[in-house]
Amino acid sequence: APLRALPGVSAFALLFGLALHGRRRDSLLALGATAGAFWVALVAQPAGVVAVNDVISTMLATAVAWLAGDNLRQRRLRWAAMEDRARLLEREREDRDRAAVAAERLRIARELHDVVAHSMSVIAVQAGVGRHVIETDAKAARDALGVIESTSRDTLTEMRRMLGVLRDGSEAAATQPMPGLADIPALVAETRRA
Q1: How far apart are CA 34 and CA 14, in angstroms?
Q2: pLDDT score recorded for residue 171
Q3: What is the pLDDT of residues 54-107, one digit of tens each?
Q4: CA gyration radius, the chain
Q5: What letters, b where the CB count within 10 A reaches 16 and e where it falls short, cover 153-176?
Q6: Which end of the chain, N or C, is less surrounded by CB atoms within 10 Å?
Q7: Do the Cβ atoms of 21 and 73 come closer than 8 Å?
Q8: All residues at 6 or more sequence positions from 162 whose CB lies less than 8 Å from its CB, including other chains
Q9: Gap between the Cα atoms of 114 and 104, Å rounded
Q10: Distances in Å between the alpha carbon of 83 and those of 18, 30, 73, 87?
């Protein structure tokens, strides 16, 4: 029985599957082999069995099967690349968020250290003065206790302010700003009084 046009529907399905799931180099080799096999099979037919239209339609069907599979494979690859990029961007955003939180915690820790360290230094010096003069100079001891009292109250107020900032998440909760360079003379005067 003579071979009819488009005899290899299974070959088209195989070519489509290889173009969809295989490597491009392998699918191109399969395309060439399939087209060559069909060409040989069509040319080997007796005269008058195969028309030019049969050859063209077979070659076009072979090309369409490969193109459809390759196109779908390319779309899948692009989609996978977009998903990978989205995951990467999400990880980068999470890393930036973690870094921002760590930087804010470090800033708060520094502020707490600055407030507490200065105040504790003043309190320690005044407590030492008070202990040293309590027997000989009651007024100096009372003054030292007064400085300890006001410094500890100021420190507690500042600690509450900072905790309010932490709870509210904004500087709007602050009742007064942290001391800056302009406040150095007042801080020096307070330390001298101590």
Answers
A1: 10
A2: 52
A3: 888 889 999 999 999 999 999 999 999 999 999 999 999 999 999 998 888 888
A4: 42
A5: eebeebeebbeebeeeeeeeeeee
A6: N
A7: yes
A8: 108, 111, 112, 115, 174
A9: 15
A10: 24, 30, 15, 6
Task: Give the pair of three-digit tokens for residue 13.
Answer: 């399905």
Extract the tokens encoding 108.
């708060």
**Which of 179, 49, 50 is CA-nearest to residue 115?**
179
In terms of residues, how long is the chain?
Answer: 194
The predicted-structure confidence for 34-53, as pLDDT tens digits, reads as follows 999 988 888 888 888 888 88
Joined tokens for residue 73: 């494979």
Instruction: Tell the burial category of 58 from Cβ atoms under 10 Å away from its Cβ (0-12, 13-18, 19+).
Output: buried
Q: Among 22-31, 40-49, 69-78, 141-150, which is the least confidently predicted range?
A: 40-49
Angstrom distance (rounded) from CA 194 to CA 18 = 86
Crossing angle of helices 184-193 and 52-133, in 10° steps, is 30
